[in-house]
Design goal:
mainly alpha; 85% helix; SVM family protein; SVM_signal
Length: 124
């Protein structure tokens, strides 16, 4: 009987320590906003996300086109195609590279600026 009382005496200590650890681990901040601004902010985030996805998909398509074009260039060289045909493919590849570079800049400008600032400030 005495051993049970000693063990029960430590029970509140363990319960309080586990409760404290639980509260420390699950400390998620909650953001609040006033009168309808949450919906507008959420809508803007959705718009930015969809714009970002559209621009990323365009860049992905351009990269896939370039991969196919490079494959065509290799096949044309292996099949001893005419120089004019190979040069035409090379010119198309250079133009596609310029379009990809432009799309990369567009995609970079689509990324919200506040996330860039927070990333830069966390690095300092």
């Amino acid at each position: 009987m005495m051993q049970v009382k000693k063990k029960l005496h430590l029970l509140p200590l363990f319960l309080m320590s586990f409760l404290g650890m639980f509260l420390i681990i699950n400390n998620n901040p909650i953001m609040a906003s006033s009168n309808g601004h949450a919906n507008n902010n959420g809508h803007n985030i959705n718009n930015n996300q969809s714009d970002l996805e559209i621009q990323a998909n365009i860049l992905l398509d351009l990269n896939l086109q370039q991969a196919q074009l490079v494959q065509q260039i290799f096949q044309a060289r292996e099949n001893n195609a005419s120089e004019e045909f190979i040069n035409n493919l090379m010119t198309r590849n250079m133009e596609l590279s310029q379009r990809i570079a432009t799309q990369q800049r567009i995609l970079h400008n689509t990324i919200p600026q506040h996330s860039n600032r927070s990333n830069n400030s966390s690095r300092n």
